[in-house]
């Protein structure tokens, strides 16, 4: 894995008046990673992105892009960035190709071959000579990405990119972003308030709440973390005995749906201990099922807890 650090947040903070909107962010994003920036509405995601691309000033701290400070060395830093903040700027009465040519004029060193390469990469080859007004939202989104990628940035920033896309469009975008990161080595920074969507798209997620980074974790660890409930089905006449045994482990039992069931908040690695305890006491265990918290439940738990 390429360990070039494409983005480095160093205590980045944004204050507006007396309010701290983004509070002391410190983390890195390496090349080749799709990073999901998650948070409920108003958490500070857009404000962070606006600082990253120099649209607003950083009050305190630093953001480095490919080692260049966005404050002190703006031109060198921004050269490495392709971004779509809010809607992509497209001319609907021009064709996709004309739009790209127009942008290529503003970005030095973009050749005709590069335009063709990028059209191929975003899968718009068959429609690139059609007018943008005939494009679906998903195609417009991809044309926007093509435009942001023309100058070969190391970092692609997308603010809520799936807003307004249908499931097929989301699927397409997701696969495309993963390919871009994993095959082309681009660092992709995607903000969203939808965790379920991030799960399928990102390698790692950072959760923002009230301007603070409250969690940063690989998506795999994130998915497997948190509380799961274990539902143990036993002989109904032994339920009170089983509850007393479980209480000796300092574990609570929650009301279950069926007689003969015990619902225990438990991590997976604690299951063998519980199982052994019940078996040794002669309890008839019929089944043990793990009931994972859904991703949305986990997300809510993290963000609610920190309020
Ligand atoms: N110029 C400003 N002056 C005062 N408050 C602001 C300003 N810009 C943003 N805020 C506040 O900062 C907080 C974070 O806003 P931001 O738009 O960054 O959140 P977000 O995570 O992107 O949310 P959303 O998903 O709703 O876009 C909000 O409470 C917002 O009202």
TrEMBL record:
CDD domains: ABC_BcrA_bacitracin_resist. One of its GO terms (molecular function) is ATP hydrolysis activity. Keywords: ATP-binding, Nucleotide-binding, Transport. Pfam families: ABC_tran. It comes from the Bacteria. Gene3D superfamilies: P-loop containing nucleotide triphosphate hydrolases. Transmembrane segments: none annotated. Residues 7-235 form the ABC transporter domain. Belongs to the ABC transporter superfamily. This is ABC transporter ATP-binding protein. It comes from Paenibacillus sonchi.
